[in-house]
Automatic annotation (TrEMBL), chains A, B:
This is Homoserine dehydrogenase. It catalyses: L-homoserine + NADP(+) = L-aspartate 4-semialdehyde + NADPH + H(+). It is an enzyme of class 1 (oxidoreductase). Its EC number is 1.1.1.3. The keyword S-adenosyl-L-methionine does not apply. The lineage of its organism: Bacteria, Bacillati, Bacillota, Bacilli, Bacillales. Residues 9-127 form the Aspartate/homoserine dehydrogenase NAD-binding domain. It comes from Scopulibacillus darangshiensis.
Length: 331, 331
């Protein structure tokens, strides 16, 4: 038996997953006890030349994927909600587990998709949607279960952090630093999602769902990007021994309402995120028992994201097998 | 039904666990689906006055613990190998899961005790034995399964890190900084285990077992503590923009032999552990996919240690239940 996987999307993340399944087949099959095979890949257009083995179905038709092979797990590596929301809903209603890296989808539709998954006795996993290669979802869900999480502060957008680091270290204007980041591949051609704070905001909402079981009203949650940060502000902060960072904050202190905001903040050397530079992400979690924990690592990139996605795939595969053995209730 | 727990040892860690079971019963029973009850506590002598509820068995006799109640899980919170090794072996041979915070025991006897656990179809869990409240064992075991771990660098002894921070920040000699640490409760009356590097060394050996499946020959593994670090060396490092830290290193680069060492090292601002100050621990893991991940948090203390111990207790309780349902094979 093999675990048959369908891959939706073949951009940076999709290609990273495809390659890693080949290079790390030994580690995967050792953990799962069966071989993982990517049997179908959904692409946008047939124009491009791709390095995909011949026996893999490559198609532009979502429906075709389920006609040719039995599919055990679907990895969703597209971006945005359209058409991914419908795809993911359709897969879950077939009781097939989904692993996704899609932060916008999970922020906007995560709660509903988890419900669809439960109704169909399957799962949707999304480790890769927050903080790239840092296993923050698993840590919160499985390693801090007794702790009351009082506050989270995080650097969740590597592009913004890179630009701010670069403005400070090289005395650049926002425009120049952005252009440099684009040249180096750290910012996209259309950087709006990153520099306006939306990417960090989506991830914050996913953490809010996870930690507090709900999200604040999006209208009430403050979101400000780094697009108006000036050289002067960064210089002024530096003169106080501080750095400007795009910080996401999440708390439920003193009430039932979740408080969330994403904005540029001046932080000093005593702040747990002060030393986080370049494209790294970091999450600082204030708990009642384990005190303050900080998790730092690459916030994006093909291989770190593949690491998180394939860890979720292992879990889904092991759960599948246990469902087959009619023991789903214990997992 | 309740989960009956026996607690061996009622020092700082044992008391922290006892209190946390009371303050966090809601979180515990919500995760487990059953109430956790500490039914027996093994103490050294009856002399001390202790705040333990009346219905809890408090005894100096290990054997008595198993006479009065059914015991589902044993938490071992003593130190050293004698008599803990015999206790733990005895508990495991009764097929009762053990949760331990004992680094010396796991470094010296971990491999054998895991074997005894397997033979008796039970488990020994030891999250609290390395890096206190940081869930580093679980992260390595369950979150980085596909990654090849190339190198680990870590600050694993909070006492040493505190003393080195304090020598640098306050210009103190080793002796004065140690005395201060002792006054503040950050160093024990007999500090040998910490300042000679043994504590960090034991933890490094546990990580070696975990990551590489074996330990280097202890004679080959270099261990040097902080007891000979001078004010002058720290000053000289500072003049180069560096800090002296007690760093544990573990790698298997370029061969089959695990390389491990614990020693004071000068590190600069680019090093992932440069900003770790005071009693914090931190583990930096270099992987092939997730790149470099750093996990930082309190390395000791009653409540952070209780957090790790009780997370292991939850896992053991859930596994117990699944064994009862005869589905042990899937976990």
């Amino acid at each position: 038996m093999t675990i048959n996987v369908a891959l939706l999307g073949f951009g940076t993340v999709g290609q990273g997953v495809y390659e890693t399944v080949q290079t790390h087949q030994h580690e995967l099959s050792q953990k799962i006890g069966e071989e993982i095979r990517i049997v179908s890949i959904l692409i946008k257009s047939q124009d491009k030349d791709r390095r995909i083995e011949e026996n893999v179905q490559v198609t532009t038709s979502f429906a075709d994927i389920f006609k040719q092979n039995r599919i055990d797990i679907v990895i969703e590596a597209i971006v945005g909600c359209d058409p991914t929301y419908n795809y993911v809903k359709e897969v879950l209603s077939q009781a097939i587990p989904v692993v996704t890296a899609n932060k916008e989808l999970m922020a906007k539709k995560g709660s509903h998709l988890r419900k669809v998954a439960r109704e169909n006795k399957t799962t949707i996993a999304f480790e890769a949607s927050v903080a790239g290669g840092i296993p923050i979802i698993r840590v919160i869900n499985e390693c801090l279960q007794i702790n009351r999480i009082e506050k989270v502060e995080a650097i969740l957008n590597g592009t913004s952090n890179y630009i701010l680091s670069s403005m400070r270290e090289n005395g650049l204007s926002f425009k120049t630093a952005l252009a440099d980041a684009q040249k180096l591949g750290y910012a996209e051609a259309d950087p709006a999602n990153d520099i306006l704070g939306w990417d960090a905001f989506y991830k914050t909402m996913i953490l809010s769902d996870l930690i507090y079981g709900s999200q604040p009203d999006w209208e009430q949650a403050y979101r400000k990007g780094i697009d108006n940060v000036t050289e002067k502000e960064i210089k002024a902060a530096e003169n106080e021994g501080k750095k400007v960072k795009l910080i996401a904050t999440l708390s439920k202190a003193g009430g039932r309402v979740v408080h969330a905001e994403v904005k540029p903040v001046k932080i000093g050397p005593d702040h747990p995120l002060y030393s986080v530079e370049g494209v790294d992400n970091a999450v600082s979690i204030q708990t009642d028992l384990a005190e303050n924990l900080v998790f730092q690592g690459p916030g994006a990139g093909a291989l770190p994201t593949a690491s998180s996605i394939l860890q979720d795939v292992i879990k889904a595969a092991l759960r599948n097998r246990s469902v087959d053995s009619k023991v789903a209730q214990v997992l």
